[in-house]
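Lab meeting, item 3. Inverse folding demo.
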């Protein structure tokens, strides 16, 4: 077809728009209503287990302006420096687990500190050239905050401790 020449058949075909039938409109409206109700209920009474219909608590709340913020970590002793506790990264390359995976198991670790031996064994396999861990402990550091500013005061609480047999 040449430029500037009208094709009436093409123009007629593009002018027609197919509309949705009553069942299709009802189905779509029903889905929107159900989702809106779920999101409203999730925001009002839901918790993290309602996701994706509720806000995650970690993103929908804030800490008090004055108080403390806590951070969980591990400290180790090695054969090279017995008696000296040294912070160690709680990362997959170092121990095979993320910090959150360890934090989620704190009650089990406190009940059975021997579980920490698996972190030492994982570290030995992942980093065979690093000094062997002879002791490991999980610590919670409380950072004191006043008016949303750290005061420099740091409190350390030992949650569980393991020593190699």
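The presenter then showed the designed sequence:
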């Amino acid at each position: 077809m040449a430029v500037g020449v009208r094709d009436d058949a093409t123009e007629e075909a593009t002018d027609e728009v197919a509309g949705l039938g009553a069942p299709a409109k009802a189905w779509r409206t029903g889905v929107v209503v159900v989702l809106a109700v779920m999101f409203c209920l999730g925001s009002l009474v839901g918790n993290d287990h309602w996701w994706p219909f509720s806000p995650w608590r970690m993103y929908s709340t804030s800490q008090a302006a004055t108080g403390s913020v806590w951070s969980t970590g591990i400290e180790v002793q090695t054969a090279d420096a017995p008696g000296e506790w040294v912070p160690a990264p709680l990362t997959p390359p170092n121990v095979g687990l993320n910090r959150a995976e360890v934090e989620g198991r704190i009650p089990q670790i406190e009940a059975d500190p021997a579980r920490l031996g698996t972190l030492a064994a994982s570290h030995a396999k992942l980093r065979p050239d690093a000094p062997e861990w002879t002791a490991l402990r999980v610590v919670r550091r409380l950072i004191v905050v006043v008016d949303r500013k750290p005061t420099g005061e740091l409190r350390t609480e030992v949650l569980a401790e393991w020593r190699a047999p």
